Structure formats: structure tokens, C-alpha cells
Amino acid sequence: MTPRYIATTSDTRSRPIRELVLLVSFIILAACGSRPEVGALALSEVPAQGAETHDILVVTTRERDSRPDTYFNGERSQQTSYAQASISVPPSHEISQVEWPDKLPGNPETDFVARSASYIEDKSAFTRELNAKLAKLPKGKREVFLFIHGYNTLFPEALYRFVQVVHDGDIEAVPVLFTWASRGKLQDYVYDLNSAAIARQALAETMLQLSKSNAEKITVLAHSMGNWLLMETAIQSSPAQRKALEGKVDVAILAAPDIDIDLFKAQLRKLGTPANPYVVVVSRDDRALRLSRAIAGGKERVGAYSNDAELAELGAIVIDVTELDSLDAANHSKFAQLAQLSPEFRKTLGQTGLRSASDTARGAKLGDSLGTFVGNTVALPVNIITAPFTYSGGG
Fold first, then answer.
1. pTM for the whole thing?
2. In whole angstroms, what is the distance from residue 70 CA to residue 230 CA?
3. Contact yes or no for 87/117 (Cβ under 8 A)
4. Which residues have CB under 8 Å from 18's CB, separation 6+?
């Protein structure tokens, strides 16, 4: 008789370790290839018919880097720095992709390329630049779009990904990137988490600065660990500061939040019911969050949480993208594909009626609004849940 294998206690305990090793190996292999770091903002002056340029304002807690065309690295600075960059998107651009050049400075016909970049002297100069850009927009549309990136992200990666979202989403607001000191290395998870913690005060000051500008509204998009930074910044802010922001922040989109689910629930209890519900983008096949879960003792992460309905009951609008085919091997950047959703749909998520209504009314209004155009404009396999309403989109 062939002996059966019986799992021992040590075997059971080793399973999370084996899973962690496999996940790390998978993500390392998936990330193989050169990543932009030194000189990634080398300028191109070559004209390209049909290319579109986007101007991005930058606020950062990263250390300035003296190497040419690099600007910032992954180390922490003791002071906040400011910058601006203009990035060109090629006419051959494919939705949700960042076309990195094989060789710098790149070909503007086929690649994302930098057209200009410079430091901004200080906070006051940044505010003047922001207000000047807002003044170019018509009244009623003077909005700021703030992006907070996640773990394992180099400075140019955060910048170019943000440009892709702005471009694909046809965003008319003034784009502002808040970039904290991520080293962009898989093994530096704890370093990145501590960098995010250090950046809380700078983010709080930045959001107050944006709210005191001439912006009429602010949309916030955070990704991965950037959500931990956003939520903890809200927690440490005073009630008066939170109240000041409520009048300006139109919608906060939490994409693939790398937050312990129990911590998230505690944060929501601490903050109370928000005037504007969070939009939470989740995907249960997110391999990066599976790795984070293994590191964090097996606790589920919000961005891969298995109970959409519970998140909706907590007051969030949940966009479940589990069925959406990912363009990255870790299934962690699906949020970038949502930029192609129609402007009407994005406006629906931020409607005043949805923000101020009860759960029942909010669900009904979302259903009515989606029903008028969703069949033609939402062509992605996503589920949208807001208690007690659920919409299942088709691909």
C-alpha cells in the first residue's frame, strides 16, 4: 500500500511562508526589465503631430536628486519640495498603457516623453502657479485632481502613470501629484510604509493648501499604500481641518487600498459618516495585495476584500473589477483602466444628490443615472455596489 502523506503542524505553518516566497518570485519575475529611474525626464524637443502634452504640478517628500533629468529619488527629505513637468502622450497611445521609451529621451511619435521639467521655488510659488492654471479654466470647472501613488513606485513611474490617467480620462482639472518617498523596490515594503507615515503632515498641509486655493472642487485618487497615507492623514487632522476640506473635496477614490480591513473599519468609525462617500476600487485577484496580506499576518486588505456588500454598508461606493482583465501581471493597477469610463459616469459618482442622500436614495439615484447611458458608455466588466443597489457591467 502506498503510504499517504499526512500534513504535520510544521507543514501547515510553512504554507504561508511558501505562498509568500511564490508570490515574491512571481512579482519579481513579472517586474523584470528596466525601470525608469536615472535621467527619466530627459527632454525631447522633436515635434510629433497628434501628440498631446499634459502639465503636472508636483508636491513631494522625496529627496532631490542631483543627477541630470532625475529630479527626485526614493530617499526621504526633511522638507517638502515642489516641481512641475510637461509630459507628451504619443498619437499611437493605447488606452491604459504607459509607452515607456526604450532609449531616452524617447520618440514622441511612439513614447511618453518629457517636454519640460523644473523645480518650483517654494510653497508660495506653487500656490501662484496653481492659481494661474485654475484661472485658465472657466468658472464652474476650476477643479484640482490630486493623485497619491502607492508602494514600490519610482518618481517617474508615479508621474507617467498619472499622466496616463489624466489623458485617458480626458481630465480637465489641474493635475497635482503628491509623491512620497517610495524606493521603488519590492523588498522595501516596511521602508515605504514608514515613508508614508512620515508624509502624513505634508499631505495634510498640501490638501489644506489646495482647499485654500482658487479651486472650486478637489478630486482625490489614491492607489495602494497611498490610501493608507490618505486615511491616516484624515485621522490625524483636526475636526476643523476635516470640515474645511469637506467643502472642497468632491470625491475620494480609493483604488486597490493596501489597508488592513480591521484598521479601515476603525478609521471609518473614527471619522464618522463622510459627507461624500468614498469610492473603493477592489479586485479579489490582486496578487500584490495577497503579498501584503501575507506580510501582515494574514489580514485581508481592503482592495482585495471578499465582501463588497459590507464595504457598501459602511458607506462606500464599491467598484469591483475582479472580472476585468489586468494589463499588469500582479493585477494591481486595474484602476488605470477605469479612466476610460465616460465623463458622464464619473460625474454620476460625484453627484451632490448621491453624496447627501440616504443609502437607499443614493442607490436608486445611481441606478437611474446609470440606466440612462451605462449600456453605451460603460464597456468594462465591473460591478458597482452602493447599498442597496448593484450594477453589473459587461465587457
1. 0.86
2. 26
3. no
4. none
